[in-house]
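It is worth pausing here to work through a concrete case rather than discussing structure prediction in the abstract. The textbook approach is simple: state the sequence, then state the predicted structure, then interpret. We follow exactly that order.
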Amino acid sequence: MFKHLRTLVITGAAVLPLAIAAIPVHAGTTTGTFQVTATVVNSCKINSASNVVFGNYDPTSALNTTAASTISVNCTKGDSYNIALNYGGTGSAANRIMTDGLGDNLNYNLYTDSAWTKVWNSSCGGANNCDTGTGAGPGAGNAQTYTVYGSIAAGQNVPAGSYTDTIQLTVTF
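Step two, the predicted structure:
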């Protein structure tokens, strides 16, 4: 009888590991979510602003002397902005003034249009004229280029020499 019992125990012990191995064991899974966020800020940068170089001015000529330059800015897509140019060292909306450093002045002005009718002002809004743009148009978020048109009125009685002025460019957004 013990022999048979022993056989059953041994046989039972041998079968038991096979039964456990056949039962699938699951560790379990669960899922969740999280957000990824960023805030895009309104921003503008001045890429470049080239000099207005009039070259030679002939005070005996009956013709204005003109020149042009460009300003390049890059603003956030959809960001409204405006570009203002100050009046230089001692100028006004009526006349910007280049000086020779010896007390002599040469009047000129800067314009937003090639007809030289809209003076590029030092502030924008209301009756003031300045160039305005928006990143919402074609090329949004890319460099936008604006032309600055300059003119020196003919017939100014000034001595020969080199005349200069420095203009500050301000982009408000």
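Step three, interpretation. The mean pLDDT is 83. The helical segments are 2-22.
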